[in-house]
Design goal:
The protein is mostly helical and 176 residues long. The protein has 6 helices and no strands. α1 packs across α2, α2 runs antiparallel to α3 and α2 packs across α4.
Length: 176
């Protein structure tokens, strides 16, 4: 009974490790493909939802203006995302960078206030705010590249996780 459980656990871990390795390598070497693929799926789903909404409005002639507007918005948004996935990536990166920029400015302001109040730890807040500000500026300077770098970093993490699982399995197989 225990050996069946252990064997099943080994198979599941091996499959998960291989999947992590494959996905990690795709994320490292083709982050733009992942962005386009994921956003393409989102765009097509929105487009189909829009078509279904519009067909429903016209087929059942309900006169539901809200459903008509929703269908048009879904159709247009989905079509735009399918045609321009990297622009959506840039918009999302700009939004995130804007939030990070605001946070950085607040951190720097807290550091200035802490220094004026005579706090001993104001420098760590200033350094944190400065690093955060630098990261926000880097994202603002190259939003799509920043998103791809983050995706590639996620790929590196998945490869490391997959390799460590395979190494663990190899060592466990030698024990049992």
């Amino acid at each position: 009974m225990f050996s069946d459980f252990f064997r099943e656990l080994k198979h599941q871990t091996a499959l998960g490790a291989v999947a992590a390795l494959i996905l990690g390598l795709v994320l490292i070497f083709a982050p733009q493909t992942m962005i386009a693929g994921v956003l393409g799926i989102v765009g097509w789903v929105l487009t189909l939802l829009g078509v279904f909404s519009l067909v429903s409005v016209f087929l059942y002639n309900r006169g539901d203006m809200g459903a008509l507007i929703l269908g048009v918005v879904q159709l247009l948004a989905g079509g735009w995302i399918v045609r321009h996935p990297y622009q959506l990536t840039a918009i999302a990166a700009y939004i995130v960078a804007g939030m990070v920029l605001i946070h950085a400015v607040r951190d720097i302001q807290y550091a200035v206030d802490a220094r004026q109040a005579g706090a001993a730890n104001w420098m760590s807040a200033a350094v944190s705010g400065g690093v955060t500000l630098l990261l926000a500026v880097l994202v603002l300077a190259n939003p799509v590249g920043s998103a791809m770098s983050l995706i590639s970093f996620g790929g590196v993490c998945l490869v490391i996780d997959g390799l460590s699982d395979l190494i663990m399995l190899h060592r466990l197989n030698r024990l049992f």
